[in-house]
Amino acid sequence: MSQWESRLRFGMFLFVAIFALATRLPSQGGREVRHGALELTSGLGRKLYALPDDDDVINARKSLAADPKNVERVLQLSKAQAGRRQYREAVATSTQGLAFAPKNADLYLERGHRELGLRDFKAAMTDLEQATRLAPEMLDPHYHLGLAHYFSGEFDQAAASFDRARALVKSNDSLIDCSNWLYVSLRRAGREPEAALALARITPDVKNTEPHLYFYLRLLHFYQEQLTAEAVLPPPPAGPEDLEGELAFDTVSYGVGNWYLYHRNLPDAVGVFGNVVKGEAWNSWGFIGSEVELLRGRK
Length: 299
Hints:
By secondary structure, the protein is an all-alpha fold.
């Protein structure tokens, strides 16, 4: 079968699968979630909402109002808003900061990070490229620029950005995080030998310290064939308020779905991605990646 025929067949399969999923997108826990503002409507047609203000947002807003040209207070408010999935508001807050601090790399990084969550990958790319120019030795702009390329289907460029980010790591946590995305970028770019080499730095001595990096480390062990898909997949979250459980579920499920995808196990890939996009954590990389893969199948 030619590559074109293979892609066409995959696209037709995904279209049918996505159509079937469209009627099955309630939250994983099946309970109503208290919403804030509507942030965006996904390409799959689902309305994605913020959460209401909490004390962190309220206090950060008051703090910034008292000192409106303080970059640290701008970043504090933007991050507090993002913590409540208020991504449009976080972008506006960062933009407010850039009006008086137009050469601040942290503000470009922050705005680009939130534009990724809003699926505005081109705008994110522009901001993150500017952040890399202003602070080339800062890891995070390269990492997030890699995500912007990755979600845009630009896998070679994504691999280059993640490789630059990995060259700047100063901890095992960052090594784990960057290695995961470098590996999957290379696999999706069809550069399997290089992807295998990217795993070489993940030795038995590499351990995480941040709890959420444990799931990326287990994915890397899965890629190294030390774990099976059944062993690496965590249980579904207990409900819409189980944010840590959903983050773990989305992260690992997307990695496993991706594995199925480039091993041409299309039914299982679609099933895994479909389970992820039923959740509430629409700003997680695993959710965004799953949504993007399902949307690619429509084209």
